[in-house]
Structures are given as C-alpha cells and as structure tokens.
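User: Continuing from earlier, I have the next pair ready.

Assistant: Great, send them over.

User: Here they are, in order.

Assistant: Folding the first of the pair now:
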Amino acid sequence: MKPLPLYERRGSAVLWWLNKAQDLHGAAAVIYHAMCNEGIEIKKEHGLEEGYSFRIALPGVFAMNAGLSLELLLKAIILIKKDGEYSKIPKIHNLSKLAEKSEIYSLFDTSQKHLLETFSAYIVWAGKYPIPTKPKEYDDALKISEKSKTTHKEGGLTLEKTYPEMVLNWENYDNLWEVIMSEFWIKYGEKYNA
C-alpha cells in the first residue's frame, strides 16, 4: 500500500493536532502573563510607545489564542472519532458545535457553554478585527456579552455585575482546557491503547 502524502499524513495525525493545540495554549499563557503584568521590559526592549498598555491591547488576542487552542483540541477529538479522516473534521470555528460533534458538549455547565460561545467570537473576528464582516455577528457578540452580566437599579443608579465564572480569564479558560484535554486522553486511550 502506497503511503499517504505528507499533507494527508499530517492532517490525519491526531498528535499533530494535539501539539498545535498545546502550542496555542502556551501562547495564550504568555499573552495572559504579559497582560496581567504589563511587561515593562518587553515594552522597552521592543520600542513600544510609553502609553502602550498590555492590559488594554491583549485581552482579545489572549481570547483568540485560547479559543484556537480549544478549537484544535476539539478537532483532535473529532479526528479520533473519525478514524483519522482529516476531511471529516468540520471546517468551522464554533466551539459549541465542535463540542457537540466531539460528543462532549454535555460535560460543560451553563457558564462554560457561554465561554465556548464567547471564545468562538474571538476566534472568528473579535481577536483580530475591530468589527466582523456582518452586522449580525456584531449584534450576536453583544448578546453573548450581555449574558455574562446582570443589571439592577439601586438608589437611582444602574449597577452592573459580571458573573465571575463567565469572565475571559486564565482560570475559566484553563478549566475548559482541562475538561477537553481529559476527554482527549480518554478517547485517545480507548482508540489507540485498546
């Protein structure tokens, strides 16, 4: 039997997908660290302007990288389920749909499902563009954002509270990562160690 061309071998290699997911996970960690610590040395070393703020500039970039890491990990699970047939991996960025296709969506609680929706928007546009290609995508993103908040009136003021479990931070992202990674190794073990 003739070996598969390199393109197809890489596309069907589950561990390549895992490695790329881990690379993006590591990049998200570095970005998050810089975002939280302002990286003064980095700014000096690379000539960034004095007023440049990682806390302002990096949240969307963190969310995009974090979301992409989850996307690749979910696609690796789908690849396991599809016996390494790369062509059967959905060409989408919607993490909720990918979680459904990988048959692990039910493992997530309501807050985690909300985070999957939010990270999806950052993968598609919010992590790299000021606006999406369609106004409806922008409206949808605003609706997703509103789900993470509650408002109430108190003494003539409107107060807004964000649910901490729905915030795009390292802890919430890493909890998603751990759930998906755990399922990856379970499914990988069932398929390749059986």
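And the other member of the pair:
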Amino acid sequence: MQHFKMFGSTISSTLKWELNVINIVKKAQQWLYFLRRLRSFGLTTQVMLNFYRAVTESVLVFSIKVWLGSIIQNETLRLNRVVKPASRIIGRDLPSLEILYQQRLLGRATLISQDSSHPAHDLFEPLPSSRRFRSIETRTRFSTSFSP
C-alpha cells in the first residue's frame, strides 16, 4: 500500500486514513502510560486533566478537521478506545472525539464568517436566529465535508 506523510498526517494513495489513525492511536497510548504514572503518584484530577489535554488530546485532535469526517466507524471506535481509558484514569468524563470535532468545525466556521476577506466567507451565511449557519444543499459526498 502506497502512503505518504504530509504536515504530520499519513494518507494512503487510495485516500484512506487508516494508517493515520493507527499512528495516532499508537502515539496517544504511549502518553496514557504517563497518565497512569501521574495517578500512581497521587496527583490531583486537575493536574491529570491538564496533562491529558496538553499531550494526549493534542495528539488525538491534530488535524482532526481534515480526517475525522472521512474515516470509517471502525476507525472512530479505535480512536475513542484511547479516550475511554483516559477518562477512567483521570476520574472525569472526557468529551468524545466527535464532540471535539464539532467544536473545532464550529469555531472554524465562526472565524470564517467573521473574516470578510476569507475566500469562503460567502459560504457561511448565518440564519436569522444567528445560532446556526445556513446549510448548503448537496446530493453527493460533499454532504459530510467541512465546505464544498
């Protein structure tokens, strides 16, 4: 299988993200070891949460806006198998990757809608309620992409 790494993400010649997910899970699981060690030292939940967010979560969500919308459910489950043990180690509920993905997409859309010089500014038109953006009607694979 031909693959290449660009900007820290691995993609195959068939535009699959499987190898990227495998690499991310490996890196994140390595950091879970250190999270367990922090717990064994008796550190507070807040310190462990800060460590998780700074190290493990940053590995998991690196370029998440690019690849999470196009991976299969099996790969999503594989990624969430890192979040669940971290949640148990810390002793607090942690947001799933889907929630983090939605938050980052909404943040990006908000920034684009506020920047009138952005090329995609016209694509993000808020509804009259200003709570949501007007959705672009699609009938193809673009229905799950960030922007057409």
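Worth noting for the second one:
The mean pLDDT is 85. The longest helix spans residues 18-40.
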